[in-house]
Design brief:
homotrimer; mainly beta; 12-stranded mixed beta sheet; 10-stranded parallel beta sheet; about 30% strand; acyltransferase (chains A, B, C)
Chain lengths: ~230, ~230, ~230
């Protein structure tokens, strides 16, 4: 099937739209954009220049965890905005009003909730769930198998990991869980499998090696508690 | 008005030049470059492949600070070099001889001084002032509302922040101020609002939580002074 | 000479292939790809969208170390995979089965061994040697003049440096040496000139300021030893 394109779609130059793509009404598409097979784009979406939507994952011999090949199409929810140079994979979805910055890439099987902001140059790995009204600032790295609940704030250049044994094999990986309302300072480091509880605050540059309690503030390397907010 | 293009301009394939663009003499433009409405490009500029020049900022419902919409055109000063895959916004300017690396993005209302080097994969936020002969190495993050004076050296992968309360609202943000000749080691973390004085040295991996004096060297998390150079 | 293109090559739209390029059989080339003068691409290579292959280095007045201009063509070994938005320079080579992620850039005079994985958004500087079966995860920074031996694992967002005096001049630079089988945790910081010996383990967020012994594990800022594995 050829692509199905809505009304009032503004299309830049040298745009490539593959088969089975569905594009809603009032969509703006920048120059040199590539929309790959089957991608669904809602109404009122704005797409920057040189964006790739709906990429399929690839692999090589050394990769222990092979990417899934049966993936549903990428869904770009209505009124979302995609920055220039972004690369979004098949099998993921953005809810209504989400924002994705320039040069950001989101792998397969990621869900991003309503009105969330994924800043510029952010890399999100596969199988990660990001809630609504979340902010992930510029340059942060969101590992695979991670859960980020609603209203979380992640400052710039934060790093996370899901692989305790660093490439030793194909055992179960576990990314951090960041619970509702927690805030992570810039360039913080999160180790695999930890939970950062509701409304906790992680200081800039902290290296978080164990769970952080509700309302707790931690700083340093390794991160230690400095105070606890009253429960609200 | 259609674009005004100087003499001896080498233009790659599939280049898009929007209206009111002005391009000087002896300019080289790579393949798939997009030069957006009104952008001014001086003489002897070299532009890599897949570059976007003059992007307008975008926003979503969740963003507390809305970007300015009345912005003067992007100015790319004479003899500047722009790497492949870079995304530069409207409302900013590069002085003569500036260098911008591949996959780097510079937001609106940024000024970059003469002969400064902004390396590959550097993200510069809006409203930031970068002096002359500054080096910002690969992968560093320059937050909004920051001042970087002349002859500063910022190593690779440094991070800065301007938002003490991490997304709590639309109060005044303040990025770090880095004064003339200071040097920042790789992967250092700078907190909001601090001043790093003239010729100070920040060690690699340091987390700088308070002001650093002239000629002082600091290291660690949190960063502490280890020595002070004689004033020169 | 015009490009020489093998059998069964799938070519996307708006692809630019410059003179003297050689492309093997069964190669897949995405949309908007730029293959620059002289690049050699082996059989069974897969190239994503918006990739630049064979870029020549550029410079400005302020750069102390001028890039070499006499460079052999980029060699993309057979069965390699290149992600979307990647920028690879002339003078480098990928061995058989190597994997390069999206939005990654590799400078000139870099060699990458068989089956190695260079993740998304990784920046590799010039004159660096990466062995076989190495993993460099998303967002890591590999400085110039670095040696990474076989079977090394580098987690996400690691940073390295080769310039002890931070831009003071054109003296000899020395990147870290990471020996066979060592593992580096996420967001670790490596200082110039250090050696990380065989099978050492660097904890997440560690700041490594001196050599690390064989089988040693180090953590913290500055990194200190916490245990030593039995030699195997």
């Amino acid at each position: 099937m050829k692509a199905k394109i809505g009304e009032n779609v503004l299309r830049g130059e040298h745009v490539v739209i593959e088969d089975n793509v569905v594009i809603g009404n009032n969509v703006t598409i920048g120059h040199h954009v590539v929309i790959k097979e089957g991608t669904f784009i809602g109404n009122d979406v704005k797409i920057g220049d040189m964006v790739v939507l709906g990429k399929r994952p690839s692999t090589n011999k050394k990769m222990a965890r092979k990417p899934q090949t049966a993936l549903s199409p990428l869904i770009v929810g209505e009124a979302s905005t995609i920055g220039s140079g972004a690369v979004l994979y098949r099998g993921s979805s953005l809810d209504k009003g989400a924002f994705v910055g320039d040069l950001t890439s989101i792998r397969e099987k990621v869900t991003i909730g309503e009105d969330s902001i994924i800043g510029r140059n952010v890399m999100v790995e596969n199988n990660t769930k990001i809630g609504s009204r979340v902010t992930v600032q510029t340059g942060s790295y969101i590992t695979a198998d991670m859960i980020i609940e609603d209203d979380v704030f992640i400052g710039p250049c934060c790093s996370s990991s899901n692989d305790k044994y660093m490439g030793e094999g194909n055992y179960r990986h576990a990314g951090p869980i960041i619970k509702r309302g927690a805030k992570i300072g810039n360039n913080a480091t999160l180790l695999p499998g930890i939970t950062i509880a509701e409304n906790a605050i992680i200081g800039a540059g902290a290296v978080v090696v164990r769970n952080v309690e509700k309302n707790q503030t931690v700083v340093g390397n390794p991160a230690k508690g400095i105070s606890k907010k009253k429960e609200s």
